[in-house]
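To make this tangible, we now present a fold written out as tokens:
***
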Amino acid sequence: MDGRKDWRQRIVGAIRNDVSSPMTEALLTIDEVYARRVIDLAMRIAEALTAVGASANDVALATIRVTGALGIRPVHVDVTYNSIGVSYHRTDSDWPITMLRVVRAPVPDHTKLQRLQALVVEIEGGLELEQARTQFHVIRRMPFLYRPVIIVLAQGFLSVGVAMLFGASWVIGAIAFVAACSAAMVQRLMSRLRVPFFFSQIVGAFVVTAIAALTSWLAHFGVPMLDGARPSIIVAAGIVLMLAGMSVVGAAQDAIDGFALTAGGRILDLALLTLGVVIGIIAGLSAARGLEMGFVVSSEPPVLGPLPLQFAGVVVIAVAVAVWNGAGLRTIVVSAVLGGIAWLGFTAAVTGGLGTAISSGLGALAASFVGILVAHRLHVPSIAVTTAAIVPMVPGSAVFRGLLEIVESDGTAESLVLGVVTLIGAGAIGIALASGASLGLVLGAPVRDSVQSVVRRRGRIR
């Protein structure tokens, strides 16, 4: 009898184990599946934010906000230049969940950036996981806001704005427009052929320099309407065009926020692409000189046009950059206003005798400070409007003058030093722009938060 009883107890125990274990494992599996789905959504949003131009700090904060709002906390986020890693460790007895996602090369799309930031806010407001996943896939499949022909025209009008800034004639403005559109179309063709962007920068800068040399050559032979033509403005406009698409503000902001690896990757990318522009211009100048089509440029900085024309040019440049980056109407308007504010600060500082580099930094500081205050209120990305606002101050003319002085030097140390000093001055302006823009964002953030808290308190009192 005891043997039969033991046998029955073994059978009952085996049945209980078979029934209870799957239920417990299923419960753990459901928790793990949910955590993985949340982390996957957060990483996809982070990847999309990085790909459209957000800073590393904004990406990390968005990832933490999404996972925390959906109940997965704490998580550890690691953002580098080309990858995003998220790790979630529930308890000491569980294995951590760690996921890694590779990020493709960033292509600015400020409309998509705005929609992604709004999605993060909705998730914090109580949006469920499945609804958030559905909305994200809708945003991810959004096509670029403008057609390629609109982007090419925007790049052309950017050069027109630079020509207006220096008070050039309408003929030079038209030639700058043609040169910029030609360079943009060549770069787009090379992109379709999957040629690295470094070589596209070289070819684009070469095309712009060649058209400027041809303009100077035609003016030398007395072609009508080209008397007194300034081909250097055409090249300067081309340089601004080539450098406008670079995330200088994002690189400086990553360095200030402590994301050294991401900042180093972006800065190296910027340096490499700028080197491509330099090689293209030098190749164009050398070819023009070999064909006896070279042109002489004064070592003095070009004189700016009348003040109303300067502000008109600044607005054109800011609008063109915003359209180029896929911004919507509201972002375009804010970018135009901030461009005027930045140029007003720059002009006031130059009038006060502070120098071009410091004045550029102060102008960028003013634009970014105001930009971060109004960006949240108007639901536009702060980095989008700041980038468009500081492009008019990009030192395209200084870069070209420094390169021309080096190419046309007579081999003496004095002539080479003159060109190097000019290039160092251009680099100082670029550093001042990035630093001023990033400092404005840092100083404006607490002021924005204070204003928001005051508004919320007043709303509660009412």
Observations:
- Residues 6 and 97 are 43 Å apart (CA to CA).
- The radius of gyration is 28 Å.
